């Protein structure tokens, strides 16, 4: 018996240090995940305390063809069933983006399939709606918080995005990684700080918040990073005390997540938004999710948060963005070249 035909998209994500592939079908007006695979490079980069581009390229080049072959084998999907290919074209590490783009373009040419270029941040913006019963409703306020990006965006329709606020310096995830090194914690720092914070008192210390005025929606996290560096130098004798470090981690985490939550709620109120959609790797933090949930309930906002498994970089969000756009009648397009600094604003 022939399998019923579906509009299928292959998603490819290689913007940084994770190689992701996914098959997504258009079904009843929504993307449905058929299968997804992801290989993290965390263990490869951990000894260096951050991402080494040369290593990332090597891992992407080795893993991507293997993952694509395995994905089709495990799902039982044939290449001939594909409708198109969706690939991240920016922002991200140039060398990493090139691996995914070269593969997608070659595969598209070989199979005579359209290749849909997807903005990595756009993928994050819409990931909170994956698996939801209701359709996406515009406008909504998007909060994206990751290692490389911290921003609020007004999402008024497909390809109609306006940056409401962004970070003036370090992104939240980047600042957490740097502070983790000061605390002697391994890379990546965010999850390690969260783990240590569970043992500490979030009210033990008070650290500065960037642009604390509610009328100023800009983010800034370099100040808290510098404050903690001087604080640790001043209390050098306590560095060997696990309880002290746990209190620092808990107090720091509270400062960062409270800042993110407050500014998102202020922006929603100022812009008259009724929906807040939050995504990005830092949204895997349970304390941040808890604060956003409580704050949105108190403010009468409808909150959408990406599942923890889809907060970090993945190909499901890339393929889904292409599927949603295709169903909305937005034509597939691909930039002539990748853009490591690609803006979300159109």
Brief characterization of the structure:
This protein is an alpha/beta fold. It is built from ten helices and ten strands. 41% of the residues lie in helices and 21% in strands.
Strand order of the largest sheet: 3-2-1-4-5
**Can you write the helix and strand succession as a string?**
EEEHHEHEHEEEHHHHEHEH
Number of strands: 10
Which structural class do the helices and strands define? alpha/beta
Distance between the termini: 45 Å
The rough form would be described as globular
Helical element count? Answer: 10
The average pLDDT score comes to: 94
Radius of gyration: 21 Å
Strand fraction equals 15-25%
Uncertain regions spanning at least 5 consecutive residues:
none
Query: What composes the largest sheet?
Result: 5 strands, mixed
Query: How much helix is in the residues?
Result: 40-55%
Please give a structural write-up.
The radius of gyration is 21 Å and the shape is globular. The longest helix has 30 residues. Helices cover 41% and strands 21% of the residues. The model has no long low-confidence stretch (mean pLDDT 94). It is an alpha/beta fold and 346 residues long. Helix 2 runs parallel beside helix 3, helix 5 crosses helix 6 and helix 6 crosses helix 8. The strands form 2 sheets. The chain has a 5-stranded mixed sheet. The chain has a 5-stranded mixed sheet with strand order 8-7-6-9-10, sandwiched between helices. The relative contact order is 0.18. It has 10 helices and 10 strands. Strand 2 and strand 3 form a beta hairpin.
């Amino acid at each position: 018996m022939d399998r019923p035909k579906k509009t299928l998209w292959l998603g490819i994500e290689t913007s940084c240090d994770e190689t992701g592939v996914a098959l997504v079908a258009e079904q009843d007006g929504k993307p449905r995940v058929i299968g997804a695979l992801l290989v993290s490079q965390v263990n490869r980069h951990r000894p260096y305390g951050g991402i080494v581009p040369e290593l990332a390229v090597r891992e992407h080049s080795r893993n991507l063809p293997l993952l694509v072959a395995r994905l089709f084998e495990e799902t039982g999907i044939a290449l001939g069933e594909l409708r198109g290919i969706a690939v991240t074209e920016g922002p991200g590490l140039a060398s990493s983006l090139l691996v995914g783009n070269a593969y997608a373009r070659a595969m598209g040419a070989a199979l005579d399939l359209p290749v849909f270029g997807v903005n990595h941040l756009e993928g994050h913006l819409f990931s909170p709606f994956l698996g939801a019963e209701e359709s996406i409703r515009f406008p909504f306020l998007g909060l994206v918080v990751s290692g490389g990006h911290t921003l609020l965006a007004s999402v008024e329709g497909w390809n109609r995005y306006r940056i409401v606020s962004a970070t003036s310096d370090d992104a939240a995830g980047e600042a957490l990684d740097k502070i983790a090194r000061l605390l002697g914690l391994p890379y990546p720092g965010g999850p390690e700080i969260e783990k240590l914070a569970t043992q500490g008192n979030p009210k033990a210390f008070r650290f500065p918040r960037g642009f604390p005025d509610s009328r100023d929606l800009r983010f800034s996290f370099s100040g808290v990073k510098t404050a903690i560096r001087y604080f640790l130098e001043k209390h050098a004798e306590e560095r060997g005390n696990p309880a002290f470090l746990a209190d620092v981690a808990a107090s720091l985490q509270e400062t960062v997540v409270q800042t993110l939550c407050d500014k998102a709620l202020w922006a929603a109120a100022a812009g008259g938004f009724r929906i807040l959609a939050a995504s990005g790797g830092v949204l895997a933090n349970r304390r941040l999710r808890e604060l956003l949930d409580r704050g949105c309930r108190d403010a009468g906002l409808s909150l959408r948060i990406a599942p923890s498994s889809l907060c970090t970089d993945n190909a499901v969000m890339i393929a889904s963005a292409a599927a949603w756009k295709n169903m909305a009648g937005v034509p597939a397009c691909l930039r002539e070249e990748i853009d490591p600094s690609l803006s979300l604003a159109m």
